Amino acid sequence: MARFRNKKKVAFVKPAKKQPTQNVDHVTGDKIPRSFVFSRLKLPATLKQLQADLRKVMLPYTALNLKEKKRNNLKDFLNVAGPMGVTHFLVLSKTGTSPYLREYSLAVDIANSQLRPRVPKDLFKNSPLIVLSGFGTGEQHLKLTTIMFQNIFPAIDINTVKLSSCQRIVLLNYNKETKLIDFRHYSIRMQPVGVSRRIRKFVQNHKVPDLRSLQDVSDFITKAGYGSESEGDEEGATVSLASDVGRVNKASTKSAVKLQEIGPRMTLELIKIEDGLCSGTIIFGKSRRTMMKKNLKEVKMILQNSKLCKTQPS
């Protein structure tokens, strides 16, 4: 009698639905910029802390725990940038004598200078808003700088964005006289208009108050350490809310928008713009000192291509 082999049963796997790429914003449809913040050569401890602060500024679309090794070079970061969808590098570098960046304050320095530092746990859950001031002069190198800063952070759609997701703001101000750029990083908080500071803090507090030793609830408001009314509570800029934001700011009410600096703070200066990644034609240079290491023939060709000046160097 013939034998029949048992046919192996093959399990049917339902094909998974094609998921949208994680590197595209589902609201605006724009590609989300991602970044690496790292250093070249060994940095002093303060600049290492500044590097950590800058990674927090770039959250959530950056590698917060990026590990660097001494043998890593720019090509190593470039090789992994493509598969990970990284679009921007923020590089802190140091020469043989001193670092390039000299005027800065760390986030911890900003917090120590404030009476009540404010860093909520969900502050870095969403990317910050970007505000540029003083860049609209019509000069080509400033236009390129504006585009670069705008593309570092994801674009937002003002028609669909939720106010609760707007937690931080990065402000860049260009001074035409000094030609310096002031970098500031703020947290955004909203306070209801027409509500006293004591009542507001009472409502925002998540802990159940202990009233056993008090005769009346008014004693708690005045004696339980909820701040004094003498602290300025001016309205500032106000917005009308379309939806609830937090426990106090309710829809159809007006809330005051206030900024509190959280750092880091930097003073930047545009030195050079190059075509390509740390190589290629110099599009803008603060002075000819940026070309000192190139021979005379290369300098003439660069000046002709980038049209930095009308006369040839002698």
Helix content: 10-25%
Low-confidence segments: 16-21, 224-235, 288-296, 306-314
Q: Spell out the helices and strands N to C.
A: EHHEEHEHEEHHEEEEEH
Q: What is the strand content?
A: 15-25%
First-last Cα distance: 103 Å
* Annotation, overall tally of beta strands: 11
Mean pLDDT across all amino acids: 75
Radius of gyration using CA atoms only: 27 Å
| Largest sheet entry | 7 strands, mixed
Structural category is alpha+beta
Spatial shape:
elongated
Counted by DSSP, the helix tally is 7
Summarize the structure.
This protein has helices at about 45-55, 75-85, 105-110, 140-150, 195-205, 215-225, 295-305, and strands spanning about 35-40, 90-95, 105, 130-135, 170-175, 180-190, 235-240, 255-260, 265-270, 270-275, 280-285.
Structural description of this entry:
- Residues 33-279 form the Brix domain.
- Pfam families: Brix.
- One of its GO terms (molecular function) is rRNA binding.
- The chain has 314 residues and is of the alpha+beta class.
- The chain has a domain at 271-306.
- 22% of the residues lie in helices and 20% in strands.
- The strands form three sheets. Strands 3, 4, 5, 6, 7, 8 and 9 form a seven-stranded mixed beta sheet that branches. Strands 1-2 form a two-stranded parallel ribbon. Strands 10-11 form a two-stranded antiparallel ribbon.
Provide key terms for this protein:
rRNA binding; 11 strands; 7 helices; two-stranded parallel ribbon; 7-stranded mixed sheet; alpha+beta; disordered C terminus; 314 residues
